[in-house]
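User: Some background: our group keeps a shared notebook of sequences we're curious about, and every so often someone picks one and asks for a predicted structure to add to the entry. Today it's my turn. The entry only has the sequence so far, pasted here. Could you supply the structure so I can complete it?
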Amino acid sequence: QVQLVESGGGSVQAGGSLRLSCAASANTYSNNCMGWFRQAPGKEREGVAIIHTAIGLPIYAASVKGRFTISQDNAKNTVYLQMNDLKPEDTAMYYCAAVSRSCSFTLYDYSYWGQGTQVTVSS
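Assistant: Of course. Here's the predicted structure to add to the notebook entry:
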């Protein structure tokens, strides 16, 4: 059974940090692309960061590059998103996604999605 379980969201002030976690089942995590996406109220879901769990090579959206870091722990089948210098515009529901043949920010290319975790940044 495929599972993606996100955690780590919360409320912080601008300039603060949060770390999101996405724990996956072994067969979902292994040798696959996993990504973080976000959706703010009234806006479309957008890609934030993706990584291939076997190759690495993280890719970031321009809006978060230099502030966010995607990483992985193979022993725990977990992908993380470290978010530093958070801004109010980072406020959104953050989703973990897995298994993309293109390993890109193309939403429909991902087979599995987590339930989401809310990140709220106040000014």
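Suggested note for the entry: The helical segments are 26-29. Residues 88 and 121 are 5 Å apart (CA to CA).
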